[in-house]
Description:
With 163 residues, this protein is α/β, with parallel strands linked by helices.
Amino acid sequence: MKLDILAIGVHPDDVELGCAGTLIKEIQNGKKAGIIDLTQGELGTRGTIETRYAEAAAAAKILGVSARKNLKMRDGFFKNDEEHQLLLVKAIRKYQPDIILGNVLIDRHPDHGRAGNLISDACFLSGLAKIETKDDEGNTQKSGAHGTFCNICRIGTMSLNCL
Length: 163
Ligand SMILES: [Zn+2]
């Protein structure tokens, strides 16, 4: 599924808190948008994984996004390494977005900054044709070579404080 905008947040409520207004406005303008949550937010002081999934699904419906996926990285302990970068490259290539919104690169919460850098790195790597990835059906995915979706994710639109 091709998306115009892909918003990626490390915790299931980051996108809602960081850029819900932007998503609503762009969807109302006819754009197709989606959300990727990197973790299930399992270390959050309030709520449970189940309540976070229910809230994420309800928010996705209210926002009008076309897709929402959770990559189930480990909250608090995911890394910006090859394994996690390739997982995100695969997700980015699945949606082939023109614009990616992601966590800021520097933040008081270590997950936010680490995720921002992971998103930025995966966005760049998704444009490299020599990095081959397969979709869920085993088909080779199209890279974002020739500038299709590399160099577009350095937008630090989400500055959040998750306590
Ligand atoms: Zn957060």
